[in-house]
Structures are given as C-alpha cells and as structure tokens.
Amino acid sequence: MPLEFSTIASMRFGFGRSATTPVTANADQLMAELQTAAGEPPLFMPSIEAYRSQALDAAAEMADLQRAAKDDPTQRAAVRDYRRTLVRAGRKTLSQRLLQPVVSPNAFYERLVAFWFDHFSVSTAKNLMTAAMVPLFEAEAIRPNVAGDFVTLLTAAVTHPAMLFYLDQATSVGPDSLAVADGKGKRGINENLGREMIELHTLGAHSGYTQTDVRQAAMVLTGLTVDRKAMEAVYRPRLAQPGDFTVLDRDYGGKKRQMADTTNLLADLAADPRTRHHICLKLASHFVADDPPQSLVGDMEAAWEKSDGDLSEVYKVLLTHPDQLKAPLTKAKRPFEFVVSGLRALDVAASPLMAGMTDEDGAEAMGGNDMSMMAPQPTGKDDVKRRRRLRNLTVAAINRMGQPIWNPSSPAGFGDRAEEWINASQLTERIAWCRNAVQLFGGDRDPRAFVDAVLADAAGDNTRKVVSQAPSRPYGLTLVLASPEFNRR
C-alpha cells in the first residue's frame, strides 16, 4: 500500500519525523519552503559581511605571522598557535552547520542545499584559505540559488572563490598570456575546473566530450581568478590565453578576451540536453531510488526543457510524480541524514543540552552565532563530560561514519548508493550512536508511541512487534532508531 504523503514528505524529501514536527499535507507546502527559506541567513553565518571581514583579518594575521617566522624560528610557535585557533573556530562553525537542518522548519530546502553542495563539491581540507571560503560558498552560491534557474546556480558555484581555490583555477595562467610574456605569470594552465565543470557539474561522465574539449575549456577559463585581498572572484585579462577556442563544437574567445567567454560557455553547458539528463537522473537517484523509474526522469527532463532549466518546475515533477509516490523507501540515509534525522526524532532542538553544542574550548566562530553565550558554561567535570558527549553524537559521529561535513574526499562528492552506507561497520557505528543518543535525549518516551511519531505508516509489522516487546524503554527507543525503516528514506 502506498505511504501517506506526509510520510513521504518527511522521510524521502526531509530529515524525518518527530512528535513535534508539523505534518506536510501536500507538495505545495514543500515548494513554499523554497521561497521563504532562500532569503533567510543560515545559522552558521547570520552575517556574510561579518564572516568575510573576520576571515580577511584572519588571513592577513596568518600571513604576517608566517612572514615573521621566516626570519625568526621562535615565531613558528606563534604560527602553530594561531592555526590551532582557526581550526577550533572552524569546528564550531561545523557544529552550527549540523544544527541548521536539526532546527529548521524547511527540511526539503535543507535537503536540496545538501544535494547541490555535494553536486558542486568543495572541501575545507584543501588549505586554510579554502577552508575559510567553503562556508561562504554554501551561503553565497548554493543556498540563494537552489530554486532558481540551473544556469544561475551553475555560474554562482563555478565562479565562486572557494571553487576557484579548490580546483586550482586561482593559479591557472594562459601560457601565451600577457602575464607570462612580462614574466609575472609563473604558473601554467590548470585543467581541473574545466574538466569537473564538464564531467561533474553539467554533461556527466561518458557523455561524449573529449580531452580536447577539456583543454579548450581550460583555455576559455583563463583570466578567471581570485582577488586574495578581497576574497572575491575577478577577471584579469592579463592572465587570459589569447585566441579562439572550440568546446563541444561551439566557439569562444577572440581578439579581446573577457569574462563573457566564461559565462557564455557556462550558459551553453547548462542548456545542453545531456546536462538536463545528467542532473534529473542524479536528483531522482538521490531522492527516490538508486535506480529511479525512467518515466520519472523523463518527465523531469521534459519540465526542464519546457521551463528553460527552472529547477522549481523540475522539483514539482519530482514531488508529485505517480511513480515516485508509489515507490517504497529504499534509499539508505547517508551519515549526515541519519544523525540529523535522529536528533530531530528525539526533539533535540528543544533540549537545553543542545545549546552546549559548541567547541569544547569555547573558541569564537568566524561569523557564526556565538551559541556559547546561550550554553550552560562548564562548571565541573560533569559539564565538560556532557559537552564532549554532545560532540561525540554530532560532528565527531559523522566523521566516524565517513561523511565529514564540508570535506568530501574528491570533487565528485560523497557516494549515494545503498551499498556504500549500509554495511557491517556502518551499522555497528549507527547502533552505538542510537544507544548514546537515547541515553542522553530519550527521556521517558514510550517506545510504542515513538514508533508512531517517527515512522508512522512506514513502520513494518516486525519493527512494531520487537519494539513492543523491548525489555526497557531505552532499549525500545534504540530499536526504533536502529530499525531498517529508520535507516532508509
């Protein structure tokens, strides 16, 4: 029997249910989230301007310390200390990033943000400068654009400084550019952004492009770089390779190189039929099934073509398609989704303990809400222990499960198929998480009522039976969170 739409809305398109989560009656409610949420500042960055200012100050101070350390070995300790301070601030921002979908009423929007961030992956592991830019990337390039035209989202992501640093475009210089001719351009051309822009961000692998297309695209991209003092993307003609270039049978460049060469290339890639197939298949595979119904993918592509790439029109088909509504919940929750849905199921956002989810050392975050101001300050060993347990259930848990926030292992992002996340070691880690979460946040809930609240009509007869026979309330609650139904969406 098909599931109720409210169950599909919360589990397939959101981060799960709880006793206090309002029921979503129809797709219009989910679509309405996209309009309201896009203009709201994220919890981890309530002020983009303040974050950028603090990040610039931090980069300048680090540069000063590093210059001093060249001539004075004793200054190297100061560099190490300041680097540790920045790392602690980054950890606190990560905690706030995890809190975002836990407390947000706009779960579908948050799922889309996570999907598109993964699609346009950048990583904090590249270096300190990139690490500082990644939160800005999500706040500036992804969150405001998830419900608009694909070409706008593509352009915002590909030309953001975080992407230009991550894929080394910031150091790419045309071999025959003016900068090289006058001896000021020492680096060569880098093909990373050109390759991933075609293979990952638009057309997809095995779509018929060639190495020549990648090389030519990299030539078109020369000139696009980063103003490191302002942390903003800029176009510098002196870095651009002069001439004409052909990518996928279309010509770009000319006597005078300009930013329009890059934006025209992005517009053509966004409009390519292979791009809409690649993106619609990826959306359906992420939200519905590892191997989604072809009818669903085809209808999403038709909506894309008819609307010239309006992603909202594509989402409407995704939410309402009859084959999607009939499909069982077979997708495996990835670690981030599992932890967030577990915290939401236990209504952790309403717990005063959650206010303590800040850096253990109380480090200040760059631009983020200073939740340490709201948190119970550690007054003894019990408080310190409790804060560490909170961290162990949140950011540290996701790290252990293999999906560290803002830190994918490659530009392709994290895997999305069930076999990558449902295995013996993963299940062992998840069961341990369930025990610890219930111990800290379970309270005196009745497990039988918890099944109804969290799984609703998705709960199978076997799960209901074993939960009802649990020898204790904590044991029963743990069984609900560890159940096959809770680990799927």
Fold blueprint:
Elements: H1 5-11, H2 27-37, H3 48-71, H4 76-103, H5 107-119, H6 128-142, H7 150-158, H8 161-166, H9 178-181, H10 192-199, H11 211-221, E1 224-227, E2 232-235, E3 243-247, E4 250-254, H12 259-271, H13 273-287, H14 294-307, H15 311-320, H16 322-326, H17 335-345, H18 381-393, H19 395-401, H20 424-441, H21 447-454, H22 461-468, H23 473-482
Antiparallel strand pairs: 1-2, 3-4
What tags apply to this protein structure?
globular, two-stranded antiparallel sheet, mainly alpha, 489 residues
Written description of the protein model:
With 489 residues, the protein is mainly alpha-helical. Helix content is 55%, strand content 4%. The chain contains 23 helices and 4 strands. It has helices at 5-11, 27-37, 48-71, 76-103, 107-119, 128-142, 150-158, 161-166, 178-181, 192-199, 211-221, 259-271, 273-287, 294-307, 311-320, 322-326, 335-345, 381-393, 395-401, 424-441, 447-454, 461-468, 473-482, and strands spanning 224-227, 232-235, 243-247, 250-254. The protein has a two-stranded antiparallel sheet with strand order 1-2. A two-stranded antiparallel ribbon has the order 3-4. Strand 1 and strand 2 form a beta hairpin. Helix 10 (192-199) packs across helix 11, helix 17 runs parallel beside helix 20 (424-441) and helix 22 (461-468) packs antiparallel against helix 23. The longest helix is centred in the first third of the chain and has 28 residues, at 76-103. The chain starts with a helix and ends in a 7-residue tail after the last helix. The relative contact order is 0.12.
